[in-house]
Specification:
The strands form two sheets. The protein has a seven-stranded parallel β-sheet, with helices on both faces. A six-stranded mixed β-sheet has the order 2-1-3-4-5-13. The longest helix has 19 residues. It folds into two domains: 120 residues, Rossmann fold; 183 residues, 3-Layer(aba) Sandwich (Rossmann fold). Strand 3, helix 3 and strand 4 form a beta-alpha-beta unit. By secondary structure, it is of the alpha/beta class. Bound molecules: glyoxylic acid. Glyoxylic acid (GLV) binds next to loops.
Length: 325
């Protein structure tokens, strides 16, 4: 039997490539070529396994061409880029990478919040432009976190990791989730469950999106929610861009309906809505929440493990990170 063929759609840490190399013939694609469905449709037929990125569209049309494919492992915890239902129907296993990026994302959400409330980007730009002429008592004033309300939408692993850090900064934790979290977690975080996203928006000085992108969460934050948010409040999104109506957010920032936003994700990545690029108090980063050496390697190894397990015929129950539609 010939060695299985494994396609990795972007360069990933070498350890991951070497690990998969023990299992089969690995092709590592050049950066960006599989960000289009078209190219993937052309090439997928040759491969038994796919290690893809959140930017790789693994659509039904791609899967129809995937005659040899047995497993897709996403180099991410979120897997809205994959048509999981279509894959499952074709008997193709799908895996993601939960847990390993939780702490990196918790740290990052806190950093993004502070960068936004304390105007890091504008202040740094001001300094680099040579505009810093002396200490100013009224320069770059921002929101203090102690005693403020943090509203978390999606209290999963990453939501809890952010809440843990925010609590250490003296914030009060509120959350909205499909269901309330365990009593122990609520107690530990001193977190209060809020029934509706509307009420959470009204009560939050900081509203943080930590939910997956699903048909239910698409444009969850729209003009209606933005109108309910207090005028000095901050929106943080490290989940997925389409959870926010980006055009509505850009208008809300321009009109001063909310105080600011910290965004790591965008509706049409890598494009950013042009009105957002000129919006005030908006920190924007290129989807890097999980970007630490340790975490990106751990993500790759977890995804690679699922590929190896499927290819060697392990049972579903033995593969902890499989996902199903
Ligand atoms: C990153 O956005 C991920 O889903 O892992």
């Amino acid at each position: 039997m010939s060695a299985p063929k494994i396609l990795i759609t972007e360069p990933v840490p070498q350890k991951v490539i070497d690990y998969l190399g023990n299992m089969g013939e690995v092709l590592v694609a050049e950066k960006g070529i599989y960000n289009s469905e078209l190219q993937l449709k052309k090439d997928i037929r040759d491969f038994d396994a796919l290690l893809c990125m959140l930017s790789t569209p693994v659509t039904n049309a791609v899967l129809e061409e995937a005659k040899n494919l047995k497993v897709i492992a996403n180099f991410a915890v979120g897997y809205n880029n994959i048509d999981v239902k279509a894959a499952n129907e074709l008997g193709i296993k799908v895996a993601n990478t939960p847990d390993v990026l939780t702490e990196a994302c918790g740290d990052f959400a806190m950093a993004l919040l502070m960068a936004t409330t304390r105007h890091f980007y504008d202040a740094e730009k001001y300094l680099r432009k040579g505009e810093f002429k002396g200490w100013e008592p009224l320069g770059f004033l921002g929101m203090e976190l102690r005693g403020k309300n943090l509203g978390i939408v999606g209290m999963g692993r990453i939501g809890k990791a952010f809440a843990t850090r925010a609590k250490a900064f003296g914030m009060n934790i509120f959350y909205h989730n499909r269901s309330s979290i365990s009593g122990t977690d609520e107690k530990e975080l001193e977190a209060t469950f809020i029934d509706t996203i509307e009420e959470l928006a009204q009560r939050s000085d900081v509203l943080s999106l930590n939910c997956p992108l699903t048909p239910e969460t698409y444009h969850l934050v729209d003009n209606h929610i933005l109108e309910l948010m207090p005028s000095n409040s901050i929106l943080i999104d490290i989940s997925r861009g389409p959870v926010v109506d980006e055009a509505a957010l850009a208008e809300a920032l321009h009109k001063g309906m909310i105080g600011g936003a910290g965004l790591d994700v965008f509706e049409e990545e890598p494009n950013v809505h042009p009105r957002l690029l000129t919006a005030p108090n908006c920190t924007m980063l290129p989807h890097i929440a999980s970007a630490t050496y340790e975490t990106r390697e751990a993500i790759g190894m977890l995804a690679a493990n699922a590929i190896i397990q499927v290819l060697r015929g392990d049972k579903d129950e033995q593969i902890p990170n499989l996902v199903f539609a």
